[in-house]
């Protein structure tokens, strides 16, 4: 498994990210898109540029030379950061996310990040199982109001 930074000028990278971000499960469970918004090429390029501008980390996960997901390290403040992950549908339930977490934990220590946070929506059963497997501590129930709809989540924390 390797992590590779996406290239906004690489058609394969953009097509992969478009497919991943428009996957119904990723949109619902990860992006929490309640209005079925389509993600476009310009949105992907803006995301890549945002991560570059802020010196955050945004990687495509390659497994056996096949693009299978993304992992993101962002909101870096001192020795803490937020962590996000999304896996393509055909690679789910194959321990890719667990392997990626193990690899990223080692990388985080190398860049002196020792506390990580992850926002997980209440209905995202798969991500909840993943963070609990790695002994993240679950924070209190919280919610955000999006267009009159309350979206419940928890912040999970892990000290490396």
Mind sketching the topology for me?
Elements (H helix, E strand, L loop, with lengths): L1 E3 L6 H11 L2 H7 L10 H13 L3 E7 L2 E12 L2 E8 L8 H15 L4 E7 L3 H9 L3 E2 L3 E5 L2 E11 L1
Parallel strand pairs: 4-5
Antiparallel strand pairs: 1-2, 2-3, 3-4, 5-8, 6-8, 7-8
Task: Explain what this protein looks like in three dimensions.
The chain is α+β, with helices and mostly antiparallel strands and 160 residues long. The chain contains 5 helices and 8 strands. The chain has helices spanning 11-21, 24-30, 41-53, 96-110, 125-133, and strands at 2-4, 57-63, 66-77, 80-87, 115-121, 137-138, 142-146, 149-159. Strands 1, 2, 3, 4, 5, 6, 7 and 8 form an 8-stranded mixed sheet that branches. The mean pLDDT is 93.
How far apart are the termini?
A: 21 Å
* Tally of contiguous helical segments: 5
Residues in helix, %: 25-40%
The biggest sheet, with number of strands, parallel, antiparallel or mixed sense and barrel status, is: 8 strands, mixed
How would you summarize this macromolecular structure in one to three sentences?
The protein is 34% helix and 34% strand. The chain is α+β, with helices and mostly antiparallel strands and 160 residues long. A hairpin with a 2-residue loop joins strand 7 and strand 8.
Characteristic terms for this protein:
alpha+beta; 34% helix; 160 residues; globular; 5 helices; 8-stranded mixed beta sheet
């Amino acid at each position: 498994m390797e992590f590779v930074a996406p290239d906004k000028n690489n058609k394969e990278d953009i097509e992969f990210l478009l497919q991943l971000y428009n996957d119904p499960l990723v949109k619902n469970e990860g992006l929490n898109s309640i209005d079925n918004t389509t993600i476009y090429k310009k949105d992907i390029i803006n995301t890549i540029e945002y991560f570059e501008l802020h010196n955050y980390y945004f990687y495509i996960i390659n497994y056996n030379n096949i693009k299978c997901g993304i992992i993101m390290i962002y909101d870096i403040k001192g020795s803490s950061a937020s962590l996000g992950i999304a896996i393509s549908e055909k690679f789910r339930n194959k321990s890719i996310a667990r392997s990626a977490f193990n690899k990223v934990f080692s990388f985080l220590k190398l860049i002196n990040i020792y506390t990580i946070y992850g926002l997980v929506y209440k209905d995202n059963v798969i991500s909840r199982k993943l963070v609990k497997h790695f002994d993240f501590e679950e924070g209190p129930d919280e919610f955000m109001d999006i267009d009159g709809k309350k979206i419940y989540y928890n912040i999970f924390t892990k000290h490396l």
